[in-house]
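An example makes the point: we let one protein speak, the chain in one-letter code, the fold tokenised, and here it is:
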Amino acid sequence: MLKQFEESAAYIESKTSIKPSIGIILGTGLGGLVKEIKIIDEIPYEDIPNFPVSTVESHSGKLIFGELGGKFVVAMQGRFHYYEGYTLQQVTFPVRVMKLLGVERLFVSNASGGVNPDYEVGEIMIMDDHINLFPGNPLIGKNFDALGPRFPDMSDAYDEKMIALALSIAKEKNIRVAVGCYAGLTGPTLETPSEYKYVRAIGADAVGMSTVPEVIVARHMDIPCFAISIITDLGVPGKIKKVSVQDVIEVASRQEPKMTEIMKELIARI
């Protein structure tokens, strides 16, 4: 697959002169950050050799190249998920390509269900750890020694300095944020009440269907990561309600400007 990564990167480099140092992956209902980017080039996923194509209705499917906070960035407007039928290697393919394009830091956003009883709908949670509950790991198989070690350490999956700076920014701007652990499951079903209890019992504060594979691969390549989640529904006993995708998008979109403000300022200050 290393050749495929290189082919994709070479094609992208032929279509843009931007050399991004920041990679961004935007979650469900959280594409507003793109409006803050001074866009220079856009490349549809379908045009990129070997690239997967997003099948989720609420996700666009293109790479955005431009400037944000004084940095050159590449943003995925629409991500890939295991529940779409992709392998974990395909889900994380764009992160590999980002590394070859020169990306030095990865920023990820997602919408998730809160299992911490202190959380409310709309809570913004900065991730400081994760639990991988996917039925596999994107690093299973041949290791690409040129990209990272066979057995990467995951004790610092989320960069402590960026977390501290983001908390400082949130305080300055009077934005309420929490810090917590995210559990990654396959979806596409939302969790049962017993599954929510299980996720909470093993130490998670929120649960979702993305982010974990991408961060694993980024850390394999020694890319520092920052991830932020908007709690769009609650998996707390007594507060569980039926939720549709539209409900998730509505809550995410409502809180997204605050998340965007934090991420934009964080990118500017690092």
Notes: Helices lie at 2-15, 88-91, 93-101, 160-172, 193-201, 212-220, 245-269. The chain has one domain: 2-269.
